[in-house]
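User: Sequence in, structure out. Go.
Assistant: Echoing your sequence, followed by the structure tokens.
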Amino acid sequence: MTRGIFVGLLCSLAAIGTVEANTYESGTFQAHVLLVVDSSDRPVSEPGAIQLLNEMTQAMKKTDYAGTYVHLRGDQIDTTKLWHRATAKGEQERLQTMSGEPREVIRHGNHCECAWPLRKEVVFGDFPSVRSRLSGARFDHPETLDANYHIVNLGLSRVADHACHLVGLVPRDQFRYGYKLCIDNESRLLLRMSIYNDQGRPIEHDFFTEIHFRPQGDATPSQDWPDIPMDTPQTIPPGYKVVERGQSQPAEPLQPEQGWIVSPDLPGYTTKSRVWRINPVTGHRFEHMVVTDGLSTASVFVEDMPQPKALDPDAAKYGMNIAVRQVGPVRLTVIGDLPMAAVEQICKHTVLAKDANTERGERNPMQTPNQEAR
């Protein structure tokens, strides 16, 4: 995958059988693996936990709030200030990084701009479907997640001096991670999200260190609640260079018989979209597929690349797993926030659409052993 596509993407538990989360102790999510032969033996998700997720997703959209949150994965620690507004025209947000290179992202609905003050550069484009790790967007329609996750109550906790309910989403197979959420007792905002591997060990944390809410009925801008204006090409800061203006036209959908597809679909995952896009660096057209189970998501990129290239050494440091496969002059890249087992399976089973239902398509994964993964 070229660096241009990877940068563009950034700006836009796994155990065989069933995992049952039933213990909360000293902030640790402990999971017990229960091997299940008959799928009818799988535990049913708790309606109360599903209801909490529904209330949380609505609160994250409709509440005015501001605060500071931390993202922690391995030795990567990022701190961000966030302001969120619910307006008649949709959600508005401002995110300012407090660690690493200064960066600011402003969102109005589905549109955003990202500015780098030190470089004096700004990008205009579409806002990613999941705006940050602490987002309720990925948990929309939690009742549909029951097929792949056992959703349970885990008790009570406290985050950023706010009492909260713990909700666990425990995967039913090895192709997805486990999640523990802390949802504010009163506001129903998501205050913390932790992600766990197949051993029940945390691999990622996102949490507010402080958060406050705008009084209802107070619409007057102030120092604590400033407006969130979005610049235009006519009003960008003096001296800034517009690096990219986003898609000049909507992505072109692929026809069913065109290009490549994931076949067969990974259990519990479906292909959400298949479109043509333009590489902002090279100007070349490439195929882009989005594969999701409703919570975890992977992108599949298909590019013409006659001369194979090694994986970008920085590509895996952003909390994503990546697999790459070279098929003749075509480069297939899968990148996603899901276990490597799932990323590798998606990469192996990406085949030409015209071969999907043939013997050649069925054998395709076994004939392409030269796969890189990180």
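User: And one key feature?
Assistant: The longest strand covers residues 76-87.
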